[in-house]
Amino acid sequence: MDSFFGSLFDMVENSNKEIDRCPKCKISFGDFQRSGLLGCSYCYEHFSKSLNPTIKRVQGGLTHTGKIPKSASQEVVSKRKIDELKLRLKDLITEEKFEEAAVVRDEIQELRKSLEEGESDAE
Description:
Helices cover 72% and strands 0% of the residues. It is an all-alpha fold. It starts with a helix and ends with a helix. Keywords: Coiled coil.
């Protein structure tokens, strides 16, 4: 009996996804599931509740950070690291993990200091 209700629930859930369409391009979530392609950039926002868990699992997060080329300078690498640490610091403060936040803050300050020293050496 449980499998009957489970199947019924899956059918209802799938039919709801089929009916839900992006207001811009009119693609349904079912269309996306079949093709693996979204119809427009607004689909990411419209279907976010269904897409975000998958994107997070596959990419490790929801923010696109890109890659740093191997030939990038130490300055570029340090600036990227500072940006990542700033996001981490914000999360730690939100979570009220102030001791960890202080460690991250200090790491940011050290990276900034080394960047400034590198810039003055280049002059």
